[in-house]
Amino acid sequence: MAYALLQTAFAEESLFRGFLLKRLASRLGFWPADTIQAAVFALLHVVPFGLAVGAGWGIAVGVLTGAVGALMGFLNEHLAGGSLVPSWSLHAASNLLTGCLALAALG
Length: 107
Fold this sequence. Notes:
single chain, 4 helices
């Protein structure tokens, strides 16, 4: 549980929505920056999932995580005043849910 909350969710949210999105947005504007950070976030997930479960699943996970990454960037910047708390909470909940589902599948 601590891994899902701190190691993965907090680290990724700090990097992608906290650092990358904010730095790019100051130079490019919000929408291009949100698109870029979401694409990089998606690529981070495509490779491990693609190697673990196959290219088709890797691409599906990449599309899903890219869309969610863009949504979380919008949520943080436009609805939460720049706070990372909403995306961190969603990311942690998602990691916990997928971890539980993976354990159940192995079960």
